[in-house]
Structure prediction request, 196 residues.
Amino acid sequence: MKAYEMEGVVRIFARAAALVIGSILLGIGINGFLVPHQLLDGGIIGIALILQYYFDFPAGLWSALLSIPLIIYAWVKDRNQFHGSFYGMIVTAVFIDLFAPYQFFLPIWLSAILGGAICGIGVGIMLRYKTSTGGTDLIAYFVAKATPLNIGFIIAFMDGLIVLLGYQTLGLQSVVFSTITILIAGYLASVCYERF
Prediction:
């Protein structure tokens, strides 16, 4: 095998590993720490969690269905990103629903911090290797690519809007701690994406 072929294989393996590791981290962060206190992540997953809390329908499946228009947009604009996002959407949805029974009942402030940290690292790893959950992370990727805005800031801003949508359903305590979650997640996603 030639050096450039070997490099291509290593790149594909690294991207697949990032996709699986990031998806596992998201599944653990969401189910283990956010769901027990009905906290929200941001973006499409946050909307999926609101729908899960309302209708008891699996959040992973909701997130995949809600991501379809963004995946189609990626197909048109950036085929490379499409492949990573399409597979990322499916794998993340599977791990979110697979880890649904595993919840840790910790104090709400600790759950908000740990959930945000784990989800942020998962998203950052995926974005670093040009893959994503297919949700608003994909929008953040395209906006950051086209503007000087920081990807972590974009994610945190969109996530904040989603958390505000949850106010009517979940109340002030959930909004406050979900905001902590998304700020930590946005910061760590940015660090993982830009520095490592």
